[in-house]
Design a protein that fits this description.
Elements: H1 6-21, H2 25-41, H3 43-62
């Protein structure tokens, strides 16, 4: 699987920040509600993401990170 370049990651982050800044409160609440519903349906994916995150953080600390 191809990964995003650093420039592409930065461009995407800027786009998402601008998009979310311009959302109405109703749109923000719908996005939050969707995220809550998804989380309820996928606890195994959330747990796996947390494990990956903390394993990555531990590796960074071991490398002086």
């Amino acid at each position: 699987m191809e990964k995003l370049t650093e420039a592409a990651r930065e461009a995407r982050a800027r786009y998402v920040r601008e998009y979310r800044k311009n959302q109405t409160e109703e749109q923000k609440e719908r996005r939050r509600e969707y995220a809550r519903e998804w989380a309820k349906k996928n606890p195994d994916k959330i747990k796996a993401a947390r494990v990956r995150y903390w394993n990555k953080k531990a590796a960074q600390l071991e490398n002086g990170g």
